[in-house]
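This part of the workshop introduces the protein records we will be handling. An example says more than a description, so a record of this kind follows.
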Amino acid sequence: FYVYILESLKFDERYTGYTANLSSRLKKHNKGDVSHTRKFKPWKIIFYAAFEAKEKAIAFEKYLKSHSGIAFRNKRLI
């Protein structure tokens, strides 16, 4: 499982998510199949981390979306 951070190529927007198939998920974001990211496409991956357990990936994604996780992301990951 992967936790990833996307950056819009046209707008000042980032998106954090998790998936079992990173390349397929990026294609869905760029095709407009994901409602939350549709209006900011196209996207590129700027960070990803792999996890063996789905639960750990979900927990890390949730952390990265929190206030302290956003600060960590901006200071350490991107």
The first strand starts at residue 2 and ends at 8. The mean pLDDT is 97. The radius of gyration is 12 Å.
